[in-house]
Amino acid sequence: MQRETVNEILSDEERAIYEWQMSVPNFGEAGQEKLKRASVLISRAGGVGGLVAYQLAAAGVGSLIVAHAGTIKPSDLNRQLLMTYDAIGQSRIASIERRLKQLNPRLNFVGVGENVNSDNVGRLVAQADVVVDCAPLFPERYAMNDEAMRQGKPLVECAMYELEAQLTTFVPGITGCLRCLVPNEPPHWTRRFPVFGAVSGSVACLAAMEAIKLIAGLGQPLLGRLLRYDLRDMTFDNLRIERLPDCPTCSHLHIHN
Predict the structure, then answer these.
(1) What is the pLDDT of residues 171-196, one digit of tens each?
(2) Cβ(34)–Cβ(57) under 8 Å?
(3) How confident is the model at residue 104 (pLDDT cuts 50, 70, 90)?
């Protein structure tokens, strides 16, 4: 599970593939080279995480570490676009790697056929420059949050339910963390919930863009802000997130202005 050494210089093929996005102001070839050097950890590559991984692979992020356990089930197919019908019953992580490599054969893919847990979270976060949390259950989300804060890694936090979704970015020493936003695990929260693939895909694309902005130093990430929206009526809100002074995870971290 070691990251490969990446040639930081873009090849002619890469310049041809990414020329449209390299024309974005304040990004350019230097921004593309930053993506190529970067490593992103994604917890779960289902309805949300799978589209995060796909967009980051398409954008030219050099290394993706993806943790996702289990085998493909028919119920995955309405939203998990890295899974395919012909692979039902087979490993999710194998399907994820196959689909991402079809899109970007240059990608350094580190597949972990288990979900993030207290035993593996330290070594997984250590391999990443940015962490994207797409896990459905709070013990896994808290583990990612706590370890990212401990190691000083930015964390893109995204979630959805039914036709609603939310997104924010936590940076140690600059913002609060997930425990500031959700101090206690919501009661009766389960892995299975109502979901349209288009809703999970919408927040996934936004989360991928947050990761790209963090890596390339582009634009303004959602620091201290929560983007929340409801696609039933297309309402969008941008809310402030306060850092809790007694947060057990981040209150002791030095505040950078």
Answers:
(1) 999 999 999 999 998 877 666 779 99
(2) no
(3) very high
At 208-242, the pLDDT tens digits run 999 999 999 999 999 999 999 999 999 999 999 99
Q: Kindly give, in sequence order, each residue whose CB lies less than 8 Å from that of residue 25, ignoring residues fewer than 6 positions away.
A: none
CB 250 within 8 A of CB 180: yes
Q: Position of tokens 């695990």?
A: 185
CA distances 1 to 31, 84, 123, 176, Å, are 26, 25, 9, 30
Q: Determine how β-strand 63-67 pairs with β-strand 108-112.
A: parallel
Query: CA 179, CA 157: separation in Å to the nearest integer?
Result: 11
What residues form DSSP beta bridges with 237?
228
pTM value is 0.93
Burial of 152 (0-12, 13-18, 19+ CB in 10 A): exposed
Nearest-5° angle of CA 173, CA 143, CA 121? 100
Residue 23 CB contacts under 8 Å (≥ 6 apart), including other chains: none
Q: Which two tokens stand for residue 238?
A: 């941008």
User: Left if phi > 0, otherwise alpha if psi is -120 to 50, otherwise beta: which for 161?
Assistant: beta
Straight-line distance from the first to the last Cα atom of the chain, in angstroms, rounded to the nearest whole number: 35
Residue 255's pLDDT band, with cuts at 50, 70 and 90, is: low
Distances (CA, A) of 247 to 138, 176, 182, 243: 16, 8, 11, 8
| CA distance linking residue 223 with residue 180, whole number of Å | 13
**Helices then strands (H, E): number in the chain?**
8, 8
Residue 144 · residue 169 · CB < 8 Å: no
Q: Which of 90, 94, 144 is nearest to 115 (CA)?
A: 144
